[in-house]
Structures
1.
Amino acid sequence: MIKLSKNSNVSVIAGIAFLICLLSFPATAQDLEKKYAPIVGDYEFDMSEAGMGVMTVQIYVENDSIWAWAQDMGDPGEMIPKEGEEFVFTIDDGDEGAWTMEFLKDESGKYTKCHAVNEMMGMDITGEKIIE
């Protein structure tokens, strides 16, 4: 049996409390950048059928969140991860309804496609990742 002094007990309790605090902090932007690295980048969506031509959507991590920004189309939308599904997100677009965005792998196992659906707008499109 190991005997601890009163000071040792306090140190052990303080150490455990510190570890619990560390585990309760949200992921940092650096953690999210690493987690979402496979899907971050620019995607081209052919919106010709909707009379909009080709639209580029940038996916990026900033301020401890992941964002989608349809360039030249207003403010970015925060992508909220769908629980229990890898790389599936929702974006609340206010009056235009919610978007569901699912990132898909190609034949080689890399994420190169983004399937975006907005039921309220009747949109169901798939974009290709711009690979440089």
2.
Amino acid sequence: MAQWVNKGVKLIQWQCPKDRSSMPTDLWWQAAKAGIWNHVSGQDLFDNGIDTIPVLYILNQPHVVHSFELPNDRSQLSAMSHAYDKIDPLPGIPFWQTLSGPEEILSCLARYPASHLARLRWGQGARIVLGNDIGFYFVSPGDLPPGYLDQVCAMVIAGGSVDSTHVRSNLENAFLIGYALENKKMVGCSCLKHPRKALIHRLKKAAGLDFSGCVERGYTSVRPEYRSLGVGRRLLEGLTARAGKYKVFAIIDEDNLATRKIARWNHTRKITTYFSEKTNKQMGIWMPDGMSPKSMKETP
């Protein structure tokens, strides 16, 4: 992929295979990280509706699959939104949808990097650039503006990485909630929550560490259009700086490379790992430098 970038590749046009089970998601990720624009072609992409796994992947990852061949019936576009847009859609439409196809997209990529073009939207006859005016806020649950707790709950659930059973009650009883706004739209959130007794017990049993009296950083969710802009990092920094008397810990799936990277950037280190029977995965426990739980035995 690095060789392609060095040779000047700016856009890859992927032809959607008839066998939808073989979508090249790993290659899409690699190309996007390298700064290459991914465009998926194939007007039959939507023949089986928009609820198929390949289409849902494409719609939910606009920062990975940047564009796709639009259906002949443009009325379908109003239904083609990802999970976050169903909460509160961003202003306008993606700018690439105003272009005629890959040739015009490539022409724009001669002037703008893919990361910039992906953040361009078109609304009310003007271009809108996402990410230039993000505000960050950190408040207790009781001080959230009316309706904001509902939005934070919806943002967390839209992220799809947590069990939604206790999301609302955990947020209502959280120590601190952080959220990011732009254009009056919520674009990211995270919180410091008081861990449930059941979790403290599980961690004692699985990792031999006592996290009573600590707060857990979690429920981090960032809209895909705003990823790689430092939103998650800023939320983590702000929450940690405001933890006060509490020590902070986070549980991160060992496969979640993006979140682990953000944690390292914020001077947070993994203190141990354990196997979670609940998720059937290996999990890491992370804490800011200088913090430790009770009776901790550090691992390298």
3.
Amino acid sequence: MMQKGYLGLGAVAMIAGAAVASVSDINGFVDAPRLFNDFSGSNLTYSSTFSPMGSSVTLRESDYGSGNFANRHASWFSDGGGNKVDFDYGDGFDMSMVMRINAADSVGNIEAGFQADLFGFGLFGVLTATGEVAAFGSTMPFHSFGAGVYNVGDDIALRMIHRPGAGEFSGTNSTIEYLYNNLTTGTGWVTSGEIEFTSLEGGIPSAFDQFYGVGAQINQPDALEGNVSIDFYDIIVPAPGAGAVLGLGALAATRRRR
């Protein structure tokens, strides 16, 4: 986590060459496998492919061996040059993807979907132990669609829309809208509605670097039988701004609210 602002010369020297790209520069991923690496001996295959028409990330992990808690893997949106993209207060966005999780029963719980990184990690996605679809952690406003929404093996579309408020500390807060569509069971689009940020800034704080991406945390897999396969595909992140968050007419007829 990097705080923006005035830094001493020592701090400037340490972060030289670690510039953070802006949202309009999204053109790739920074892959970060083994963010948590409690099962360091696992057999991991992890890759990402970026395309403006729909990107993909694949995760295959097995033969976990001895360990304690979890392995976590992520791909952060980047400028294609190795710099993670910084999302600030005024950066409206509309990001979507489709995800499929396949896993052996011996895996305790998988938390997979959109990832966030600021003040800890956040998730908008699936918890396989209960089939819950939820958002929590980092700066992400909490919401749960309830348990039993997802079954391992389903294809589920996830969408996350950020609408900036009137300005930081203005009293008119930014909102985020979470949507899912279980393509396997045919739920149609289900929306949380617009949820206000509750941070002091009233939205994504511009004084810090907020990163978004996709990935998964695999909790307490069996040493020998744990086997996980996750595909993230059709990942779309339009450029920020009103055009990205107002083109929702096509969804209006199919949305249902829980």
